[in-house]
Amino acid sequence: MSMEMFFVFAAICIFTHIIRSLYEILKHKEILKPSKLSFVIIFITMAVLWTSWIVLCCLDVYRTNLPYVIRYFGISLAVIGLIVFLTALFTIKTLESYQGDLITKGIYAKIRHPMYLAFILWLIGFPIFFGALFFLFFLLYLLRISYFGDTWKRKN
Fold first, then answer.
1. How far, CA to CA in Å, does 54 sit from each of 44, 58, 105, 116?
2. Which of 36, 39, 96, 132 could hold 60 in an S-S bridge, CB 3.0 to 4.6 Å?
3. Burial of 2 (0-12, 13-18, 19+ CB in 10 A)
4. Which of 44, 8, 4, 10 is nearest to 132 (CA)?
C-alpha cells in the first residue's frame, strides 16, 4: 500500500478520536444524555478507530522485521487486551447506562480501570506485532508527555 493510504487511515483515526472526545465533552457538560443510540454510535466509532490503528501499524513506513518471539509477544498483549476489554464490557453490561456506585465485581475487583489497561495493551501489542517502529516511538513519546504532564500538574 502507498503513503496515500497511510494518510487516509491516519485521518480516519484522528477524525474518530475527535468524535469520541466531543461526545465525552458534551456528556460531561450534560448537553448530551447517554442513550442506547449514542452508545451504538460511539461503539462503532471506537471500532473504526481501533481498526484504523491496526491498519496504520501495518502501513508503518519504518517497519522492521522483529524476531518471531517478540512479534508473538506483541500479539499476545493485544489478545490479552481484547480479553480484558470484553470481560470488563460484559461485567458492566453496557458502558453508558450504568447509574450506580463504583463497580467492585468481576474484573473490576482486581483491576481498577480494566478498559484503560486493555487499550494500553492494544496500543503496545499491535505495533510490536507488526514491527511498526514509528508507532512504538510515538507511544514512548505520548507516555513521556503523560508522565511528565502529571508530574508537572502535581508540583503546581
1. 15, 6, 31, 17
2. 132
3. exposed
4. 10
Q: How far apart are CA 44 and CA 42, in angstroms?
A: 5
- Residue 82 has what pLDDT? 93
Kindly state the average pLDDT of the residues 78-100.
78
What residue type is 156 in one-letter code?
N
Query: What is the residue-wise DSSP string for 73-135?
Result: HHHHHHHHHHHHHHHHHHHHS-SSS--SS---SGGGGT-S-HHHHHHHHHHHHHHHHHTBHHH
Residue with cell 496504520: 56
Average pLDDT score, the chain: 82
- Residues 6 or more apart whose CB falls under 8 angstroms from that of 5 comprise 59
3-class SS of residue 63: strand
Q: Compute the distance between CA of residue 3 and CA of residue 28 in angstroms, rounded to an integer.
A: 37
> pTM value?
0.75
> 132: Cβ–Cβ under 8 A, 6 or more apart, which residues?
56, 57, 58, 60, 62, 63, 126
